[in-house]
Amino acid sequence: MPAPIRLRELIRTIRTARTQAEEREMIQKECAAIRSSFREEDNTYRCRNVAKLLYMHMLGYPAHFGQLECLKLIASQKFTDKRIGYLGAMLLLDERQDVHLLMTNCIKNDLNHSTQYVQGLALCTLGCMGSSEMCRDLAGEVEKLLKTSNSYLRKKAALCAVHVIRKVPELMEMFLPATKNLLSEKNHGVLHTSVVLLTEMCERSPDMLSHFRKLVPQLVRILKNLIMSGYSPEHDVSGISDPFLQVRILRLLRILGKGDDDSSEAMNDILAQVATNTETSKNVGNAILYETVLTIMDIKSESGLRVLAINILGRFLLNNDKNIRYVALTSLLKTVQTDHNAVQRHRSTIVDCLKDLDVSIKRRAMELSFALVNGNNIRGMMKELLYFLDSCDPDFKADCASGIFLAAEKYAPSKRWHIDTIMRVLTTAGSYVRDDSVPNLIQLITNSVEMHAYTVQRLYKALLDDISQQPLVQVASWCIGEYGDLLVSGQCEEEEPIQVSEDEVLDVLEGLLVSNLSTPVTRGYSLTAIMKLSTRFSSLNRIKKVVSIYGSSIDVELQQRAVEYNALFKKYDHMRPALLERMPIMEKTATNGPSETVQTNGETDSTILDTKHLPSISQPASQANDLLDLLGGNDVVPIIQTTVPTKPASAGGELLDLLGDLSLTVIPPMTAYNKNGLIIEFTFERSNPNPNIAVITIHATNSTEADMTEFVFQAAVPKTFQLQLLSPSSNVVPAFNQGSVTQVIRVLNPQKQQLRMRIKLTYTHKGSPVQDLAEVNNFPPQSWQ
């Protein structure tokens, strides 16, 4: 058989291919020749054929049929064969294939070989693709080589030990004696790999972390020698001595100093030296400085040192390299909460980054700018951020507008400034604001009684200029409907009043109704505004005509509004002024619903709560809404939760306070739920002054061996009942019945019907979420009769 072509010739031939199909044909032809050679057990050219296979593998072609040939090369006595064999094993094999286990004995023999380079090949391969089984079998040999005096083998053994620890963490203690002398090595390669090994051990074991904290002075000494040493051509990179080793040591110091006062104190001085003596003109120095900053921020460093670190990040913001500026902004964003004043000093530089052409830098600068806003700089920062909102890409407008709303609500110096700022945002980026922006601004305007005339005049002017920003148009329509009389009378004191007639105002609102830019929601706002003006303006006939036209609108919502408003004009005209009067001042409350009364079909019934005012609990509305489906959807009333002190309620203690000194009739208890170790028991009490109210106390116990966490009990009853569910004593049901969770339910049953209830239980048990539904129908007659 003729000798196969050399690797260099194969590469040259493949590169001459003009199309993908031609290249595939060449590869297939060469693979066929290589297979034939493998079948004939051609030992002479096995190494050359495997090398060519590896090149094809790098090009993305299948080369798995060469796996066993790699093992044969590893078993060869020639170094050139072993080198290609181990390289092939690292590329073609991994621990998912059983073939790699056949290498274990060869690697063990080569780890004990007399030639250091063969030992190095075995260490590299084990450190690259050794499975947990191989690591367990060969960890002893690696530990021996870690103690050898040969620096070439020690650095490779240290890296191999890192892989062994990652695969089999319990073998970590085996390498502990060998690490004692690693840091006293003069060879930088051994030092580097030793620091990597120590870092891995500290990250994986708290015991190792506390053990190696005594090495901090030694690490500080090594780092000091590096920054104070003169020029060394062997380790110099852009004028800095071994920056890779410096970065690794700084990273290890960060881990050792975190949360430890003594270790942090020992490294304060050297960190200050690195921060002040490192050259910043080259990227190498910037890498070391960045690692120094991260270390200073993570350990318990002195305040002066933290200010120095933030100043370094401030200098990074002036760097021409975009990556360095991005890194600086990201780091400042992480530290702004702990060192707010120090970051504030670089506010102008951060704001300048908003003008950067790079999108990622602009986003980080925007986030950091919002984090820097406070009561002292709110006017200046909002001016810059509003300018940014005007010119930024559409991708930024939603986040920027949301941030401005939150900052203005928190730090607004005056109500007029607050209203002007929100209106400016709506004018600039109204299409990008959140859905709750319109009701929030309406509430702000309503509560600012002295600003009503000014606000309605500003919004009217904004409508004349632009009606494309729908949230702004909706707020303007609402305000004109509420305060249109102030607009026409020209009572504005904050700025020069404008002369507007009633017909001009109605023209604008009618224009919104017919505009193609208006959404159905906006048309609804406009129609309602026109209707409200019927009690504020004298143009009653014109308003009646507009409203009657939309009684036949194709938009069902608009048609319904118009029909109802027509009915007001015709049948209930005597009630119209009272119904359309100005909205009262709104109190800002949680959006989770009422807290004191229970609502049924839109009517309020306060008989269920004969108590003092109870604050509403902060609970996602979806939890209550989910219960609407528990009894079929149409015949249930959702629960209303209120907050009480999170202590178990007892009949003689907090519960008496809640019910107001009521005398109670005790009823026999019942078991409502018993499944998977969770037992729910109901105890009953009836109040004598109002016998229609039943007070049910649930007791949840857990007989399993693990706690049930995130426990939530929910209930629903038919609409003929009304239900109030108070807060539980805890959200953890202890294991082995060592405690219970209690919760109080109050049920109003005015028609004395048989009580039935559907309950929903959600909790986490042994890390798995559990959810279950159950129906309770066997209530004692005394609880409802």
Automatic annotation (TrEMBL):
Q: What does the record say about its membrane topology?
A: Peripheral membrane protein
Cellular localization per UniProt = Cytoplasmic vesicle membrane; Endomembrane system; Golgi apparatus
Identify the main location.
membrane
Keywords recorded for this protein, A-Z: Cytoplasmic vesicle, Golgi apparatus, Membrane, Protein transport, Transport
Q: Domain GAE, which positions?
A: 665-780
TM spans, by residue?
none
Keyword Protein biosynthesis found? no
Instruction: List, alphabetically, the GO terms of the cellular component aspect.
Output: AP-1 adaptor complex
State the family it belongs to: Belongs to the adaptor complexes large subunit family.
Q: Which PANTHER family match?
A: ADAPTIN, ALPHA/GAMMA/EPSILON
The protein's name: AP-1 complex subunit gamma
Q: Which organism is it from?
A: Cyprinus carpio carpio
Q: Taxonomically, what lineage is the organism?
A: Eukaryota, Metazoa, Chordata, Craniata, Vertebrata
